[in-house]
Amino acid sequence: MAKLSELEFFAIYLGEAENFFAGIPQTIDPHPAPPEYAEALAQLRAKCEAIFESTQRNEFTVRDDGISYRVSMLVSITETIYVLRRFPPKVPDIHTLGIHPRHVERLMTPNITGLVVVAGAFGQGKTTTASCLMTARLAKYGGVGITVEDPPEMPLEGHHGHGICYQTWVEQGGFGNEIRKAARWSPSIIFLGEIRDGESAAEALRASINGRLVICTTHAGNVTMAIERIYSLANAAAGNSEDVANLLANGLTAVLHQRLEADASGAKRPKIQFLWIGENDGREHGKGVRNTIRQRRFDQIENDVMLQLNQMIMMKGKLG
User: Which residue range or ranges hold the Bacterial type II secretion system protein E domain (predicted)?
Assistant: First the structure.
């Protein structure tokens, strides 16, 4: 039986009659599964079916042949397909992701608190980047990290250098309550798998102004849209535009939007759009961005992103 662990791919579509791979180098997606993988894929589908039967969750994680997957059920008009997205076997070092060293330096600033948002489309590495940031900070600075996920994805549970992480699996729709519970466990970092509704957005903002670091992911097309999305979701739950804008302005520390692009070797690297509002440098500029958010002038945020990018380019030019 051919082993899936020996094949390079990004995702699997497990159908009732046909199976396909995505992300096999030098192939067009979706690529029909070669016959030699039929037995391994049948066993993997059986695992997925068993987990669904016991949990009734349509999203979950499964581990098979040393590979961890995030599984989503796709019910078409003719069959049920299990879509499995492959995760790295371990959390990479944040310095190996291809993110600009200046951005990494800011994200690794000692003692930062507030909300750090990693945004992007589906399958663009948001969870990997956010997980790398969490484990890097725990390893370097110590502390306790708590994750609030549905389902848990990256292997974060356990010791990371001086720190430790505890992963929790949230019941569907229970993000807001779980964030409130996590805040009572005195963590230095809360990792929120995804801001997907108003209650989770509002609770993430409240946690971000109480002296801890909150790292979250969200779906958005750019930095501005990520900020607008969190504001809109939280506002829908809290119902007070001014209070939500103040929470967001006071709590937000950084927004990183990424999409994966293939380099000359074919390896995918993140292309980053970055907004920093931390206090280690650019203090006056940070105040300006916060005022922009407080006044809900989201259309001006793109200017701040470009200003910071130009400043970084000019600094690089002077150093070079």
Answer: 58-262
CA distance 190 to 192: 6
What are the residues facing 152 on neighbouring strands? none
Long-range contacts of 296-305, Cβ-Cβ distance < 8 Å, separation of 24 or more: 296/231, 296/241, 296/245, 298/224, 298/227, 298/228, 298/231, 299/224, 301/223, 301/224, 301/227, 301/275, 302/222, 302/223, 302/224, 304/275, 305/223, 305/224, 305/273, 305/274, 305/275
Q: Is the dihedral of CA 265, 218, 87, 215 positive or negative?
A: positive
Pairing, β 31-32 against β 80-87: unpaired
Say if residue 64 is exposed, middle or buried (CB neighbours under 10 Å; 0-12, 13-18, 19+): middle
pTM (two decimals): 0.83
For CA atoms 180, 107, 88, 91, the dihedral sign is negative
Helix 283-294 with 301-319: angle, nearest 10 deg: 170
Query: d(Cα 250, Cα 291) in Å, to the nearest integer?
Result: 9
**Domains of the chain listed by start with CATH number:** 4-86 (3.30.450), 94-315 (3.40.50.300)
Rounded to 5 degrees, what angle do the CA atoms 110, 104, 244 make?
70
Nearest to 12 by CA among 1, 23, 3: 23
pLDDT in tens, 177-193: 888 888 889 999 999 98
**Which pLDDT tens digit goes with each residue over 288-301?**
899 999 999 999 99
> What distance in Å separates the CA atoms of residue 44 and residue 73, rounded to the nearest whole number?
14
Q: Are 166 and 186 in contact (CB under 8 A)?
A: no
